[in-house]
């Protein structure tokens, strides 16, 4: 079986000095690794009646589409500002390196729909927390949040758990 952690490439000082960029493209490009990551990310939610997967741009789209297929549900994109074609609601958030806004279509979620959040990595949790706020403003019920990578030193999973979100990550890396 593929060891997922070994398939993730680490790039020092990208996109700026002091950041260890955890590059999942090497995992995504490995057939066995991709299959295993999707299976493990979906596993805790197979019997939890998920209505939709909400994937965060851009790597959350690749994983989220496949996980939605596994769970037999639809996919909803959460995108960077200005990318979605219909009416949107937006949420500002602080990244590990900057400030940004994510958006969702205002009619993407039906009230009470059970939604699973998907992204490749959780660092400070700012992006995922903004996704939680967007989905709750859309009257969705958040079933959980699933990631390949957690950076526990940055406290993202703790932040999400403080919002009452059930969280899963497949591997953890020390440091930033
Ligand atoms: P955060 O909002 O701090 O949890 O950052 C999470 C988002 O930023 C995810 O979409 C990641 O893809 C990206 N990101 C943050 N830090 C890193 C890192 N060290 N390596 C790779 N991606 C990162």
List the strand order in the largest sheet.
5-6-4-3-7-8-9
Helix content: 25-40%
CATH class placement: Alpha Beta
- Domain module tally: 1
Q: Kindly, what is the distance between the CA atoms of the first and last residues, rounded to a whole number of angstroms?
A: 28 Å
Report the structural category.
alpha/beta
The main pleated sheet reads as:
7 strands, mixed
> Helix tally?
5
In this entry the ligands are:
adenosine monophosphate
Radius of gyration: 15 Å
Describe the fold and architecture.
- Helix 2 (31-42) packs across helix 3 (59-71).
- The model has no long low-confidence stretch (mean pLDDT 96).
- The protein has a single domain, classed as 3-Layer(aba) Sandwich (Rossmann fold).
- It is built from five helices and nine strands.
- A seven-stranded mixed β-sheet has the order 5-6-4-3-7-8-9, sandwiched between helices. Strands 1-2 form a two-stranded antiparallel sheet.
- Helix content is 27%, strand content 35%.
- With 176 residues, it is an alpha/beta fold.
- The protein has helices spanning 25-28, 31-42, 59-71, 126-137, 156-162, and strands at 9-12, 20-23, 52-56, 74-80, 88-95, 98-105, 114-122, 141-150, 167-172.
- It binds adenosine monophosphate (AMP).
- Adenosine monophosphate (AMP) is lined by residues 19-22, 56, 59, 95-96, 119-128, 156.
- Adenosine monophosphate is lined by residues 19-22, 56, 59, 95-96, 119-128, 156.
């Amino acid at each position: 079986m593929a060891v997922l952690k070994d398939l993730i490439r680490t790039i020092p000082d990208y996109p700026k000095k002091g950041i260890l960029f955890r590059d999942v493209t090497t995992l995504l490009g490995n057939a066995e690794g991709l299959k295993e990551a999707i299976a493990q990310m979906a596993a805790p939610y197979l019997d939890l009646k998920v209505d939709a997967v909400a994937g965060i741009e851009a790597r959350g789209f690749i994983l989220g589409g496949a996980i939605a297929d596994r769970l037999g549900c639809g996919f909803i994109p959460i995108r960077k500002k200005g990318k979605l074609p219909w009416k949107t609601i937006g949420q500002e958030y602080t990244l590990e390196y900057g400030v940004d806004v994510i958006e969702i279509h205002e009619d993407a979620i039906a009230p009470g729909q059970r939604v699973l959040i998907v992204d490749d990595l959780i660092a400070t949790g700012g992006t995922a927390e903004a996704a939680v706020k967007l989905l709750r403003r859309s009257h969705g019920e958040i079933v959980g949040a699933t990631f390949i990578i957690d950076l526990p030193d940055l406290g993202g999973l703790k932040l999400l758990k403080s919002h009452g979100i059930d969280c899963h990550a497949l591997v953890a890396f020390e440091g930033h």
